[in-house]
């Protein structure tokens, strides 16, 4: 059985768990990271020298880290014909574009805002940096709002791993106690994600 190392409240672990639900993949999850530790232990570092989560292990010993690489691998290895990672070269490139955008653009400001409100004790919060990050995130979400337009999902009519990579962050955007500009397309997309059992189960719970 596929083994997934990582705590359930990690955004990067959530991606992998949600994909497994979408594809109906059985897995064993092992708590690691954050309060659970383990990631600095020699046996874990041998699997993932970054000391981060998630890491997956196949029954034959194959190991992979980096959450978006894991999304691509699991789809190609378990459901190569699934539209969740499109076979069409250009649609797949669009999907990859948004996967990279999640890492290179939206991750940083959203992490700053999320940590400020959820994980950093109030006396230690840097509100100047947080307000700046919120404004930056809003500009980026507006970009996605325009890109979605009338489409049901990020790349078109079907859910893809681009929606999975970004969906965790849009839940935080709407769940955090912050000001938000009106973005109807973004809100409609988020509502469609909330109709998916895997998203509800693994991604849309209380922020921790």
The percent range for helix content is 55-70%
Percentage beta strand: 5-15%
* Helix-and-strand structural type: alpha+beta
Number of strands: 4
Please give the alpha-carbon distance between the first and last residues.
28 Å
Determine and state the CATH class of the largest domain: Mainly Alpha
Largest sheet: 4 strands, mixed
What is the CA-based Rg, rounded?
Answer: 17 Å
Q: What is the CATH topology descriptor of the largest domain? A: Glutathione S-transferase Yfyf (Class Pi), Chain A, domain 2
Count of distinct structural domains: 2
Provide mean pLDDT, rounded: 97
Side-by-side strand order of the widest sheet: 2-1-3-4
Overview of this protein structure:
The chain has a four-stranded mixed beta sheet with strand order 2-1-3-4, with helices on one face. It has two domains: 2-78, Glutaredoxin (3-Layer(aba) Sandwich); 89-202, Glutathione S-transferase Yfyf (Class Pi), Chain A, domain 2 (Up-down Bundle). It is globular. The mean pLDDT is 97. The chain has helices spanning 11-23, 42-47, 67-78, 89-119, 127-148, 161-175, 184-193, 197-202; strands at residues 2-5, 27-30, 55-57, 63-65. Helix 4 runs antiparallel to helix 5, helix 4 (89-119) runs parallel beside helix 6 (161-175) and helix 5 packs across helix 7 (184-193). It is α+β, with helices and mostly antiparallel strands. Helix 1 (11-23) links the parallel strand 1 and strand 2. The chain contains eight helices and four strands, in the order βαβαββαααααα.
């Amino acid at each position: 059985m596929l083994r997934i190392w990582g705590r359930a409240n990690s955004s990067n672990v959530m991606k992998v768990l949600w994909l497994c639900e979408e594809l109906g993949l059985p897995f064993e999850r092992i708590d690691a990271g954050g309060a659970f530790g383990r990631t600095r232990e020699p046996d874990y570092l041998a699997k993932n020298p970054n000391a981060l989560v998630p890491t997956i292990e196949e029954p034959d010993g194959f190991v992979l880290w980096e959450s978006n690489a894991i999304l691509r691998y699991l789809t190609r290895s378990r459901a190569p014909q699934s539209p969740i990672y499109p076979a069409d070269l250009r649609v797949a490139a669009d999907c990859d574009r948004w996967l990279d955008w999640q890492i290179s653009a939206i991750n940083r400001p959203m992490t700053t805002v999320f940590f400020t409100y959820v994980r950093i004790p109030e006396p230690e919060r840097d509100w100047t940096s947080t307000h700046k990050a919120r404004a930056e995130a809003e500009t980026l979400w507006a970009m996605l709002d325009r890109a979605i337009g009338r489409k049901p999902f990020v790349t078109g009519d079907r859910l893809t791993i681009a929606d999975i990579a970004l969906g965790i962050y849009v839940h935080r955007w709407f769940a955090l106690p912050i000001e938000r500009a009106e973005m109807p397309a973004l809100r409609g997309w988020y509502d469609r994600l909330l109709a998916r059992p895997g998203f509800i189960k693994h991604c849309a719970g209380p922020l921790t």
